[in-house]
Write a structure and sequence with these properties.
Helix content: 10-25%
Largest sheet: 6 strands, antiparallel, barrel
CATH architecture: Beta Barrel
Number of domains: 1
Structural class: alpha+beta
Shape: globular
Distance between the termini: 36 Å
Strand content: over 45%
CATH topology: Thrombin, subunit H
Number of helices: 2
């Protein structure tokens, strides 16, 4: 018999494959975005990458020549070459771009509104 694992996520994640730059302590490395949400992301990290949990990182995702998302992140877990990150800070322009990207990928504005409501009430 298998146990059913309860989903604890309060934010919709979108699969978004893109190359990005992850910076920390003056060092910048290329990584691969696996998914994004209003509250964090999952990244495929380069071989040998390591960090202390709760250390701040900056993620830069270029959507186009004129459009990018920059997020201040905190590592929440590391599993082999994948890292889960919590979005600690994001600027107004970046959150607008991320919101639009999520809206386009979800295809349902009510799901996005639910995420925004959850973000506003997150403690």
């Amino acid at each position: 018999m298998t146990e059913k694992r309860e989903e604890k996520r309060r934010f919709n994640r979108i699969l978004y494959s893109a190359t990005a730059e992850l910076s920390s302590g003056g060092k910048t490395e290329s990584c691969q975005v696996i998914d994004l949400s209003l509250k964090g992301c999952l990244l495929k990290l380069p071989k040998g990458w390591s960090s202390k949990e709760s250390k701040h990182h900056t993620l830069l995702v270029n959507l186009s020549d004129e459009c990018e998302i920059e997020m201040e992140l905190v590592l929440t877990y590391l599993n082999d070459d994948q890292g889960g990150f919590y979005c600690d800070q994001i600027g107004l322009e970046s959150i607008s771009q991320l919101k639009r990207l999520i809206e386009l990928n979800l295809g349902d504005s009510q799901l996005l509104e639910r995420d925004l409501d959850a973000l506003a009430h997150a403690s």
